[in-house]
Amino acid sequence: MANHALAAVKSALRERKLDRTLTTALAPLERMDPSALVPMDVAPLDACLRGGLPRGQLSELVGARSSGRMTLLLQMVAAATARGEIVALVDTLDRLDVASAAAAGVDLSRLLWIRGQEHPIDRALDRALKALNLVLQGGGFGVVAIDLADVPLAAIRQIPFNTWMRVQRVIEGSDTACVLLASEPLARSAGGLTVTLAGRATWVGTSDRSHRLSGIDVRARVVSPRKRIDGEAAVGAITTEATDRDLPIARHGR
Amino acid sequence: MFGAIYAAEGSSPEAVLAVAQEFSPRVDSVSDPREIVLDLSGLTRLFGDARTIAEELRRTAADRGVQIRVAIAGTRIAARLMVRHRAGLSIIEPGTEAAALAPLPIALLGEIVNDVNSQLVLKRWGLRTLGDLAALPPDDLAARLGQAVRWQRLARGEDATPLVPSVREERFEQSLDLEWPIDELEPLAFVLGRLLEPLEAHLERRGRGAAVLHVHLFLVKAAGETREVHERSLQLPTPIRDARTLRTLALLDLESHPPAGPIDRVVVAVDPTPARIVQFSLITRPLPSPEQLSTLMARLQALMGETRCGAPALVDAWTPGAFEMTPFAPRDGNVREPAASPVSLALRRFRHPVPARVRVADGKPAGVTIDRRGVNGGGVKVCAGPWRTSGHWWRKHERDGWDRDEWDVTLTDGATYRLFRARDTEQWFVDGVLD
Questions:
Q1: Residue range B23-52, pLDDT digits in tens
Q2: pTM higher than 0.80
Q3: A145: helix, strand or coil
Q4: DSSP helix/strand/coil, B44
Q5: Which residues 134-163 of A have a C-beta within 8 angstroms of B?
Q6: B329 contacts in A (CB within 8 Å)?
Q7: pLDDT-derived band at A243, boundaries 50, 70, 90
Q8: CATH assignment of B2-155, given 3.30.70.270, 3.40.50.720, 3.90.1150.10, 3.40.50.150?
Q9: Contacts of B340 (CB under 8 A, 6+ apart)
Q10: Cα distance between residue A149 and residue A142, in whole Å
Q11: Phi then psi for B313, rounded to 5 degrees?
């Protein structure tokens, strides 16, 4: 009897197309199929993620400033463009450094860069979300990322929560992995992952002239919807490649 | 089977051409505007024998007030020579061209082939008819006159080149006069849809796509004013003929550049170009179609601004943060393995460097105060620098030049910034966050 009632409810929800938003009728989380994942191309993190971020889901890269969020995003974008996919970055506050993207190995011709404007912040956020929606509806992108990392939390908290449900609804079943870059967890979908990052700058050299930033040690903690692939990974030192900045100028020369 | 039409003096060349095009799509307008050659292959099944076709041609021309001579032969040159020689209808049975042309005066060939010198020589040799020329031994003729061998082949009724049909310049244009003026985009969308659908069918029939879409909106004329036309031209990234895509692109463009008043006539035209041929791959993921990408880019540009969407590109310059925006047009390319290079630390760059107040101790930054919401300052835990860069000093008055000392600093909150001090103003700025 109970089964009949459950079946009737499920059928009614299915008729109204509510079965995939209000219930847990998600596909089983089989993380064996590599084509359903977008690797970050950082071995320890990919191992922790069991292959990468899932396609058709909204995932998050969150952390404080200098925690390696942008570095890991560009690494993932570089790997996606190398596979022949196209990638879109909705850059809410226009923060992308093109030289950093090129240094990370991003094929820039395959990156659709949508640049917002910093002022006024409310309008920038509104336009960025609309642009995200347009890109996701357009389809065909392997990765679509939105950068909300520097948007004040007060502005972010004004975003209606159903915004992220709508985003999830658009990408569900598609080959697109939607990635949210933020300072704190906002909106991952039921099948998406949250990668929380913490970074610590590492320096080398003892004398004034040899002292320089060598990179950032990143620790990543993965939170999955069903606690099936939670874990932590040390991404290791992220090295700067500023070969043109070998030595600082002599102090007395200033 | 070929036919040649030779119109009476004073006839309109357009009228003669129209008659010919009614009978065959393969029509060649030769240098003489009164003469037209047409390919009649296959017409016997429609009209009957060659004589019936010739009569039908003549009757159609007469209906349009054009007097013509018609000659039909197995080769074009035979028909052309005959139509110039004889009035009325002339039929040369295939295979008998040489015999039929033999009695014709050699001067006819001179009218068609413009070679005065050879013509004078042949006249001096006493040759009077095409038959005389055709009967000469070809080797001896070639030894003496070279090019005249070609004349000889023509005199025998042999074509030297295949027919190259003249292609009529086709206009891909649709227009509509509106009974009531419209002044909003929504009703205009329906009008554009109605105009673009037949245009799409026309382009499809011809195997063409649109390279440029022109929209002309004729605005309602007030009394005593000249009529104003709002013209927009959209350069399409790839040949497109999908009516819905073209309509969306036109509407998005008109949203950003609306007409100044109500519209009472709409004209849509496209510059045609050969259509795209797409080879899909089973190996790589398919890219969105150019139609999808064009529509997406138009929507994004309408939302964010025309210069704010595209593919970034590095420029060959030392200017910090220099880049340029290029159109986003990804191509199917070879898939390569991601390079196993060390992860490179990225900079989150403030497009306009943020002014900061920096406390300096012992020649190094010791504390940073930033007056912008969301960007924290604090004491400096570790720093390295300075790295001095400068450039474009000769364009300083254009604010392009820079001369600065850069520092990497980690603040007490753990964030690592790139700061710089402008050496001319001694002012400090935050260039970005290493993230």
A1: 888 888 777 888 899 999 888 888 888 999
A2: no
A3: strand
A4: helix
A5: 134-135, 138-142, 149-150, 152
A6: 109
A7: very low
A8: 3.30.70.270
A9: none
A10: 21
A11: -145, 140
